[in-house]
């Protein structure tokens, strides 16, 4: 499977040669597409943290989830410092997705590490501000040791939701209809964003 590079109109693009190298690296991590887009299209909303605070078992239990992550106000300020972002997308078929099993964790760790490795590649190409906002919560450890010191601080990154990003609204604004898995046998999508420059 090749990783597609999907471009949007009026978006400052990365050099095509760099995008090809990133796409090749992304392919090794199962990422299906890279889409450069304007961070102005990222929707940050106060209500997102309601979903974290009420209804998610990771609240106050992970370095990559609230309240350890930036407030919505701070997230808006940080995103406003960027003029280009990359959306990463991959598809997963895990019948036991809603169970917290090892296969799900292995799949998320692959996506997580792949996202951070693309961020690192951008940094080495001179995009020193590159920073990843990953999908789901950190799965690098079986159980996060929060509030004790993180075991893998170099790979620790906040999730999209922990940055108060309305992921579905943002995807819809980009013309993407997210496929929500309503049944355990349906495929689900992994999305991550790298803030580039
Ligand atoms: S690497 Fe481990 S300790 Fe650090 S945030 Fe992730 S799960 Fe928690």
Q: Can you offer a commentary on this structure?
A:
The structure is a single chain. The protein is α+β, with helices and mostly antiparallel strands and 197 residues long. It has one domain (4-195). It is 29% helix and 13% strand. The chain is built from 5 helices and 5 strands; from the N terminus they run βαβααβαβαβ. The chain has helices at 16-28, 48-53, 72-79, 102-124, 167-173, and strands at 4-5, 33-37, 85-92, 131-133, 188-195. The chain has a 5-stranded mixed β-sheet, with helices on one face. β1 (4-5), α1 (16-28) and β2 form a beta-alpha-beta unit. α1 packs antiparallel against α4 (102-124). The structure holds iron/sulfur cluster. Residues 62-64, 138, 140-141, 144-146, 150-152, 156 line the site of iron/sulfur cluster. Iron/sulfur cluster binds at residues 62-64, 138, 140-141, 144-146, 150-152, 156.
Q: How many domain modules?
A: 1
Helix content: 25-40%
The end-to-end span amounts to: 28 Å
The secondary structure category is alpha+beta
Bound molecules: iron/sulfur cluster
Spans of at least 5 consecutive residues with low confidence: none
| Average pLDDT over all residues | 89
Q: How many helices does DSSP assign? A: 5
What Rg do the Cα atoms give? Answer: 16 Å
Strand-residue proportion: 5-15%
Taken in chain order, the helices and strands follow as EHEHHEHEHE
Task: Choose one word for the global shape.
Answer: globular
Side by side, the strands of the main sheet go 1-2-3-5-4
Largest sheet: 5 strands, mixed
Number of strands: 5
């Amino acid at each position: 499977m090749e990783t597609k590079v999907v471009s949007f109109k009026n978006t400052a693009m990365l050099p095509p040669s760099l995008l090809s190298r990133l796409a090749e690296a992304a392919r090794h991590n199962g990422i299906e597409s890279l889409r450069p887009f304007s961070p102005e299209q990222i929707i940050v909303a106060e209500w997102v943290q309601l979903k974290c605070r009420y209804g998610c078992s990771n609240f106050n239990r992970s370095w990559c989830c609230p309240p350890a992550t930036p407030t919505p106000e701070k997230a808006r300020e940080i995103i406003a410092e960027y003029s280009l972002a990359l959306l990463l997308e991959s598809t997963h078929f895990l019948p036991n997705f809603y169970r917290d099993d090892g296969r799900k964790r292995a799949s998320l760790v692959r996506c997580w590490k792949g996202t951070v490795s693309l961020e690192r590649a951008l940094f080495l190409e001179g995009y020193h501000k590159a920073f990843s906002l990953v999908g789901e919560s950190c799965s690098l450890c079986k159980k996060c040791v929060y509030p004790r010191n993180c075991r893998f601080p170099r790979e620790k990154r906040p999730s999209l939701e922990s940055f108060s990003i309305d992921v579905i609204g943002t995807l819809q604004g980009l013309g993407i209809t997210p496929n929500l898995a309503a049944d355990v046998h349906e495929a689900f999508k992994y999305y991550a964003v790298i803030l580039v420059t």
